[in-house]
Amino acid sequence: MMTPELQERLTSIINGDKIVVFMKGNKLMPQCGFSNNVVQILNILGVPFTTVDVLADYDIRQGIKEFSNWPTIPQVYVNGEFIGGSDILIELYQNGELQQMLEVALAS
Ligand SMILES: N[C@@H](CCC(=O)N[C@@H](CS)C(=O)NCC(=O)O)C(=O)O
Ligand code: FES
């Protein structure tokens, strides 16, 4: 069980930008291939996004898994809603849904 403080921290991070990526490393230096997949896709689409390096904060690394009910990193949020990890982002990118979803989100 996570503390209300951690829950509040996560909520505030997630609400801090339209696209938020919890990942290992950062945009310029992803520290895992799965996190790198997400960064590359978002870069190809040319959208602005915020990243959170879970390797720098163990509470966030563990807390986000419980918060999202999703066991792994990376995790992508769009307009406060959990979208998925690397596999899901790749699928949504390949079938065109991601671009559409992000266009709508960024226009809102
Ligand atoms: N199939 C996952 C791959 C991600 C994954 O397996 N992440 C692992 C290794 S980086 C993970 O987060 N393990 C727990 C941890 O490192 O805290 C996806 O689609 O995102
Ligand atoms: S850090 Fe080893 S698979 Fe992601």
TrEMBL record:
Domain Glutaredoxin: 19-83
Annotated positions binding [2Fe-2S] cluster: C32
Molecular function, one GO term: disulfide oxidoreductase activity
Keywords: 2Fe-2S, Iron, Iron-sulfur, Metal-binding, Redox-active center
InterPro entries, per the entry: Glutaredoxin, GRX_PICOT-like, Monothiol_GRX, Monothiol_GRX-rel, Thioredoxin-like_sf
Domain of life: Bacteria
NCBIfam families in UniProt: Grx4 family monothiol glutaredoxin
Family membership: Belongs to the glutaredoxin family. Monothiol subfamily.
Protein name per the record: Glutaredoxin
Species name: Synechococcus elongatus (strain ATCC 33912 / PCC 7942 / FACHB-805) (Anacystis nidulans R2)
